[in-house]
Amino acid sequence: MFEALTTSTAVVALAEIGDKTQLLAVILAARFRKPWPIVAGILVATLANHFLAALLGATIAGVMDGPAFRYAVAAGFIAMGLWTLVPDRMDDEEAPRPARFGAFLTTLVAFFVVEIGDKTQVATIALGAQYHDAVAVTMGTTLGMMLANVPAVFLGEALLRRVPLAAVRIVAALLFVGLGLWLLARTAGLV
After folding, report:
1. Predicted model pTM
2. Can you give the pLDDT of all 191 residues of the chain as single tens digits?
3. DSSP string for 31-73
């Protein structure tokens, strides 16, 4: 459980830096200027979204577990590493619309929807499949999301200007690829 928690935290915290959901956090913070409801919305949305993703991964792994599936999960981690190298941006149609429901509900809905199909959600599915532990993976990925997004809410654009996003993307990509290669080697019986 500890390995699932710590690996999930590290993978998602690094992958989230510069991600579109982090940019969304900055936009919401600038719009509402109420950080705590935004942080609470991010937390609830991430718990719901990532629990479903981790549960999906763990369920699929429970049904399809075998060398071919583990090789597919390993390839998925390597693909995630390559995907991480592509910078995210917030498209105009993805930006949250003017809020009618307040900071918390707007953040909750926007984060849940924008996270669907995002690289951190896909990583959560893969982590759920690897560790067969939806709760530990959800705790870890949620902690990783909060580690990356809470500072973005409070410090916003000033923080994003100072963090070398290209270097962070490279480190995150290396972590994903490293996990994929480790899982390949483990499945092949090399480690």
Report:
1. 0.73
2. 899 999 999 989 988 887 778 878 888 887 787 899 999 999 999 999 999 999 999 998 877 767 877 787 788 778 777 776 776 565 545 545 555 678 899 999 988 988 888 888 888 999 999 899 999 999 999 999 999 999 989 887 666 667 666 776 677 678 778 878 988 898 888 98
3. HH--HHHHHHHHHHHHHHHHHHHHHHHHHHHHHH-SHHHHHHH
